[in-house]
Design brief:
- By secondary structure, this protein is an alpha/beta fold.
- It is 37% helix and 14% strand.
- The strands form two sheets. It has a seven-stranded parallel β-sheet, with helices on both faces. Strands 2-1-3-4-5 form a five-stranded parallel β-sheet.
- Strand 9, helix 10 and strand 10 form a beta-alpha-beta unit.
- The longest helix is centred in the C-terminal third of the chain and has 19 residues.
Length: 327
């Protein structure tokens, strides 16, 4: 029986799906395997069920020559050297689509919490500081009718735009490397603008672009200086897209009103300057964390693994061409 490593604790019934097909080595823990241990555990394995934390690079692939499929339960795959996998005939898959709507919901939750000062006011109440009502008590910014700026306009960006335009009557502007087709733009009421214009005009900026070397610190001190002092920034994309130090300075100095952050540079560590601020809502990378969605993500990774290793067609392969080469 072919051997597969599950590198992360997942739902027991989904483990059973894989167990019916393969001999399993299960890392039943929430702490990711360190690279030497990951390589050791992958010896003799043809498949890997992975998340977004396991580093799959050329060195690992060379040390694990029997590996044929790396199937991620995440949509992001910046932890995988796709070119190296393709060169060695290793199929890679991710889990797009199934988390789109849940993640878009969470983007709005974070954006609204930042705009309406929900976290800040809750801490105020819990400390026992609420003694009287005031006209300006935690008065924040409106979301309805405001200008929603979206940096990155893939599936999740479009779902956020749809919520903004149709649900909140927002004016939607976006910047992407390539403009959407007119038939996609029109239902969203979305308008493509240059990045500088996006930063200047957005009342609420949401980041949903993938992390690449080119997008590292796509929003840094220079970009933040262009934004309105009344604006908010929400990052549900990846840590490293925002310069966290520059963001903390902008928030502390009144250059930006508030932020909602689900991802961070060097997570799970969070920069102490961000932790010290009251005008930032912080969550631990949970934008896709509804039970139905996390189950769907895991099941899609399993679908891909089973197909890749039993002669089927993986539904969301990133390099399906390796199958025709006998990978």
């Amino acid at each position: 029986m072919q051997k597969v490593l599950i590198a992360r604790r997942i739902f027991p019934d989904i483990v059973l799906r894989l167990g019916a097909q393969f001999e399993l080595d299960i890392h039943d823990d929430d702490q990711p395997l360190q690279q030497p241990e990951l390589i050791r555990r992958l010896q003799g394995k043809v498949g890997l069920f992975a998340s977004g934390t396991e580093l799959i690079d050329a060195a690992l692939l060379d040390a694990c020559p029997e590996l044929r499929a790396v199937c991620l339960m995440t949509v992001g795959y910046n932890n995988v050297d796709l070119a190296a996998c393709t060169a060695r005939g290793v199929l890679v898959s991710n889990a797009p689509d199934v988390l789109t709507e849940t993640t878009a919901d969470f983007a709005f939750a974070l954006m609204m919490a930042a705009a309406r000062r929900v976290s800040e006011s809750e801490h105020y109440l819990r400390r026992g500081d609420w003694k009287e009502w005031r006209v300006d008590l935690f008065a924040g910014a409106d979301v309805h009718g405001a200008t929603l700026g979206i940096l990155g306009m893939g599936r999740i960006g479009q779902a956020i735009a749809r919520r903004g335009a149709l649900g909140f009557g927002m004016q939607v502007i976006y910047h992407n490397r390539s403009r959407l087709a007119p038939e996609l733009e029109a239902p969203l009421g979305a308008r493509w603008v240059e990045k500088e214009q996006l930063l200047r005009e957005a009342d609420h900026l949401v980041l949903v672009l993938p992390y690449t070397p080119e997008s590292h610190h796509a929003v840094g001190a220079a970009e933040l200086s262009l934004m309105k002092p009344s604006a908010t920034l929400t990052n549900i994309a990846r840590g490293g897209i925002v310069d966290d130090v520059a963001l903390a300075r902008a928030l502390a100095g009144g250059q930006l009103a508030a932020a909602g952050l689900d991802v961070f540079e060097g997570e799970p560590q969070v920069h102490p300057d961000l932790l010290a601020l009251s005008n930032v809502v912080l969550t631990p990378h949970i934008a896709s964390a509804s039970v139905p969605t996390r189950r769907a993500m895991c099941n899609l990774a399993v679908d891909n693994l089973i197909a890749a290793l039993t002669g089927g067609v993986p539904p969301t392969a990133l390099n399906a061409g390796v199958l025709s080469l006998g990978g």
